[in-house]
Amino acid sequence: MAKEDENPTTPLAAKLNPSPNSAQNEPRNGCISHNNDTNSRNAHGAEDFISSVAAKTAAQPLHYSDPDVWGVLTAISDKARKRQQGMNMLLTSDEHCIGRLVDDARFQIISPAVSAHHCKIFRKRTSAEDTEHQSDNCSSVFLKDSSTNGTYLNWEKLNKSSSEAKLCHGDIISIAFAPQHELAFAFVFREVQKSSRVSDGGFLKRKS
Length: 208
What we know:
Blueprint: H1 36-59, E1 71-75, H2 78-81, E2 88-91, E3 95-98, E4 119-125, E5 139-145, E6 151-153, E7 156-158, E8 165-167, E9 172-175, E10 185-191
Antiparallel strand pairs: 1-2, 1-10, 3-4, 4-5, 5-8, 6-7, 6-9, 9-10
Protein name: FHA domain-containing protein
InterPro entries: FHA_dom, SMAD_FHA_dom_sf
Domain FHA: 96-158
């Protein structure tokens, strides 16, 4: 059975409390709000904090005995942490769909802002010229949005018309809202390194 790694990282909501009325502070009809400078500073502070949480989470070792687990999405936002399915989404297939009505309950996110089939994470073989260290099983991981409200990769918003985006260890994936938003379902993508698996088909045993 896969063992879910411990994650003592402080939830974002403990230090971030974006106002749900933040949109009311945005300029309208060309008028500039007097609070723009303050909002800008707060936004940068929130981004820095989220980046720090993501970096600390990505640096934690992964302990999974299941050799099929090649990646993990670990919740870092308050909304994501409260999912009944737990803090970690284990990636075991070549393609996983995330959304409100997806078949696999592990990847369901129940929220009005989340589309039925919001986005997908998938692996595909990379061409020889794309890799420095070639191998028979060399593949890369990608994110593709298929939603109404979009999917954020770090702070870049992807939508249906966006091309598939390559994922790297430590990237932040946020569903429907920017990572710092109080309603965001934000996760950190972590790759399970091959060195943590056993190439001869057995499991690693601790040496005395």
